[in-house]
Specification:
- The protein has about 325 residues and is an alpha/beta fold.
- It has a single domain, classed as Rossmann fold (3-Layer(aba) Sandwich).
- About 40% of the residues lie in helices and about 20% in strands.
- The chain is built from 11 helices and 8 strands.
- An 8-stranded mixed sheet has the order 1-7-8-6-5-2-3-4, sandwiched between helices.
- Helix 2 packs across helix 11.
- The N terminus is likely disordered.
């Protein structure tokens, strides 16, 4: 296994935000200070792998009405680009899929957080046939509408986190984007993914994983729609091996993602005027709080964002 450490770029300074509502100004100040002195990519002390069992009381995902769900999705479009749900948008999608040998002769199964942006980018730029598997029916319908111009080259399917099952031995490669938000059992997910790949299919996986023994904040779990805390990296890597994957790259991308979060919010806050901020305030506050908590957990060494590249060992 090749282990890589990436030093993220300096976190951009936040612009003045005097025109924003008071609560949002406080969030902007917190973003500006979140990584002061903590984004140099230095070595971190080893942390014990926390138990994967959830706490006694795990908060249910936030109950959102249709209007707020639509507003948060629209805000993600402004932050990361149309149809993208993760920091970095199109450029990060290209970076994540760059290790996969995609072409018009290959199919890609995409499982996890995508509103159609990554799917569309892969289908248009790499020519691959893409099947997006979404756990949220509302987001699946929204992605399907976005992908309709691509015809059969991009399909959207629902998957059940309680019993993941995908088309057997069908896809050439797989991209898994924080699917453990919906299913914290990495073994269950990765065995299902492996069963859907042909031959020596390749996998790229991006996941937020626990990095310390202290419980992660319940508020963060709720904001990200998690039913349980994420597992630690060693458990995910053990699940990869159990499913038959050979690990080639393990990259800690947490500092990079934290910098992308600051850059995205900096640009958004710079572009928003008073009226737009007021109209989007509920969505902005929910998304900004989730982003800020993720940044702080990364900075504190309680959370890591890992990228893995692996391939099946079977012929």
């Amino acid at each position: 296994m090749l282990g890589l450490r990436v030093r993220g770029p300096p976190v951009p300074k936040m612009p003045p935000s005097a025109v924003l509502p008071h609560r949002l100004r406080r969030l902007a100040t917190a973003f500006r200070a979140a990584f002061a002195g903590g984004a140099d990519g230095g070595e971190e002390p080893a942390q014990a792998c926390p138990t994967p069992a959830p706490p006694e009381e795990v908060p249910a995902p936030l109950e959102e009405g249709a209007a707020l769900a639509e507003a948060r999705a629209a805000l993600s479009d402004r932050l990361w680009g149309g149809g993208f749900l993760l920091p970095g948008g199109r450029r990060e999608a290209e970076r994540l899929t760059g290790l996969l040998p995609l072409s018009p002769a290959t199919t890609l199964m995409l499982v996890g957080l995508d509103g159609g942006g990554v799917t569309e980018a892969v289908a248009r730029q790499r020519g691959a046939w893409v099947a997006l598997h979404a756990a949220d029916p509302w987001l699946a319908a929204r992605a399907a509408a976005r992908l309709r111009p691509l015809g059969r080259r991009a399909a959207v399917e629902l998957w059940d986190p309680a019993a993941p099952a995908f088309r057997a031995r069908y896809h050439h490669h797989a991209l898994v984007l924080e699917a453990l938000r919906h299913l914290p059992d990495a073994s269950l997910l990765l065995n299902a993914v492996a069963g859907s790949l042909r031959g020596a299919g390749q996998l790229v996986m991006l996941e937020a994983v626990a990095a310390g023994s202290a419980p992660l904040p319940e508020r963060w779990l709720a904001l990200e729609g998690r039913s349980a805390p994420p597992p630690c990296a060693s458990l995910v890597e053990a699940a990869l091996q159990e499913a038959g994957f050979v690990l080639h790259v393990a990259e800690d991308a947490g500092q990079r993602q934290a910098a992308l979060i600051s850059a995205g919010w900096s640009e958004l806050l710079r572009a928003l005027d008073r009226e737009a901020a007021r109209a989007m305030a509920p969505a902005i506050l929910a998304e900004a709080e989730a982003s800020l908590l993720r940044q702080r957990l990364i900075a504190a060494g309680a959370l890591r964002v890992m990228r893995w590249h692996a391939s099946l060992s079977r012929p």
